[in-house]
Amino acid sequence: xSRAGEISLSFLILFVISAAAFADDRTHKFQQGNxxxxxGEYENAVASYExxxxxxYESDELYYNLGNAYYKLGKNSRAIxxxxxxxxxxxxxxxxxxxxxxxxxxxxxxxxAIPELFYLRHYRKFRDLFGLHTLTFxxxxxxxxxxxxxxxxxxxxxxxxxxxxxxxSITLSLFFAVSTSLLVSKIIDYxxxxxxxxxxxxxxxxxxxxxxxxxxxxxxxxxxxKITDQRENWYEIRLSDGKEGWLPSETIExx
Length: 255
Hints:
The chain is α+β, with helices and mostly antiparallel strands. It is built from eight helices and seven strands, in the order H-H-H-H-H-H-H-H-E-E-E-E-E-E-E.
């Protein structure tokens, strides 16, 4: 083996060892958090889970456990924020949805949403059964399967096999088209629909991005809002009933 090859192999081995050590440390921290939670040491549990998030790792289970720890500490807004972040990764998780519903019961603001057209509502409900990562993975798998079946169909010489592979290719094409449309729709929704949770206990929404703006309505901690614009340290927000206004950026946390 050449000198360059030996160096490359050494770096690869070092990378694998470092990655394994990092994974072990993350698992250890996660277990520490779980043990602290079981022992009623919720502050320690939060510290362990937040440390894992600070390292750049995230998962629906981590957000779920962190949300539970914050809820036990009575920090309802933080609990809701982490449940919502968990649902972004796994939209059909019943445990996260249930605990989010429980946390939302204590919200001061009960704001009805503007009714959505029934077919859009059902489409979104079906699409949101799958997380972004899941849809991306499924779409890639279907792409490679479709490519393989198309090549096999073209290269097949026997008529019976060509018909079979053509049928498989058509079927996979339909699934690929559906998966791709769902994925594109979800990505566009993520880019256009930036949502956040109100962290302040009580907050006056202003008519303009300035402390001198007129107070137009008041909202409270834990409420989910949509961000529609940003100017320096101010966000323009919209409620589910269509009301709009401006808030200082430090008063909310983006999901």
